[in-house]
Amino acid sequence: MNQLTVQVVILVVFIGAMYLLLIRPQKKKEKTIQNMRNSLQVGDEIVTIGGICGKVVKTKEESIVIQVGADKVKFEMMRWSVSSVVSASNSASKAEKAEEETKKAMPKRLKKATDDEEENIPEDEK
User: How many beta carbons lie within 10 A of that of residue 65, not counting itself?
Assistant: First the structure.
């Protein structure tokens, strides 16, 4: 009876270790890939499983239309064939880039002067 209990405990520990080391990380990876494929937007540059690089022109529920090459050939493919997103086209990231460019264009002295002027304005004038 005691030997049987030890064997069952070892088996349970082994199955738990296999779950933690193999199954759980694989499910987590599949979930992130599925989220990436579901969040594809027009303008994203992607790479397919076959190695084709292109830009998303149109999205449908189960498929996408990509534009490839200098001739701008368009073809439809399934979402599951997308391997990775090279560059995402987010309007928020474009706004941040534009803001950074305006900050870089302004000299540091001018930045400090405008910040100081805003602080020195009386409350009744704001």
Answer: 16
Under 8 Å between Cβ of 64 and 58: yes
Handedness of CA 38, 35, 83, 17 (dihedral sign): negative
CA distances from 8 to 11, 21, 35, 101 (A): 5, 20, 38, 64
Q: Which residues fall within 8 angstroms of residue 77, CB to CB, at 6 or more apart?
A: 48, 63, 64, 65, 66
**Do 75 and 88 touch, CB atoms closer than 8 A?**
no
What is the per-residue pLDDT across 9-34, written as a single tens digit (0 to 9) for each? Answer: 999 999 999 998 989 999 999 999 99
Distance between CA atoms of residues 27 and 41, nearest Å: 24
CA 93, distance to chain mean position in Å, is: 12
Sequence-ordered list of residues with C-beta below 8 angstroms from that of 53, at least 6 positions apart, any chain: 45, 46, 47, 68, 86
Strand order in the sheet with 53-59: 73-78, 63-68, 53-59, 45-48, 82-87
Per-residue model confidence as pLDDT tens digits over 36-61: 999 999 999 999 999 999 999 999 99
pTM of the predicted model, to two decimals? 0.58
